[in-house]
Amino acid sequence: MDADPSLDCLGLTQGGHPEIALGLRFLEPRHLVGVAAVAHRRRADGQEVFVHRPPDNEKANYASRMHLPQILDSVDARHDLPTVRERRLGGHLLEVTLMRTASDARSLAELVHGKVAPTDIRIADALWESLTELGANVQDHATAHEMAAVPGFCAAQMMPRSGEVVFAVADAGVGLLRTLAGRNASSDREALVLALSGTSRLDEPDRGRGLPNALDLISELGGELYLATGTASATATSRGRIHGVLGTPFRGTLIQGRVPVGRRGRPRVALPLRATRA
What we know:
By secondary structure, this protein is an alpha/beta fold. It is built from eight helices and nine strands.
């Protein structure tokens, strides 16, 4: 397993430290929802939070266009992100959105479907299913151990230049290890693998299928799914999985999907979920 610095450099999880520095060479939806989730959790715990803007003006403006300042302001988290003029970007951005219930997840799926459908209805239908199931999982992670006050956050972005749509879901709840401890998970990586295989903390039929279904859909379309929880991360594609180790744990669960848009021809076939590589 390799070190995974993609979330470490955010400074999201340095225990009790009030500052979150967006000093990255690039920003993606996963970084924005990660900041939103952690800032909300820290404020709920009575901790101070200050989010530093990226040094690069373009990245700082992007974070503001994605409505990260409004999310931070809603919990009285301090920040120095710039004020930007709202732009009509059509189907290119879905701003950071708070999710507390399964209904919120369905509403988000409708918005994403509406934005993606004009480009590729097949991608839109796949994202509808993925986001609905993944969003419902956020509520479960947050409330599995009487943490109903912890919401989740979603964001999505169309990237016309690369021909991709990227969406992310994050919560700062109990994380997969605590959620799946009753299923014999003894480490963050074991819990991550169990979740990707469809294991749920509940015995109800069809529970736990959100992640594996999302992985199948995204892999079939030639994309990738990124998952992080605790100290473990994994990037999964049709070719298998690459597992990583986060230098500082992410308290909760973070998921990002990256899907090619408008690429026709023979789709890739997802590998069996057991096909992994360290």
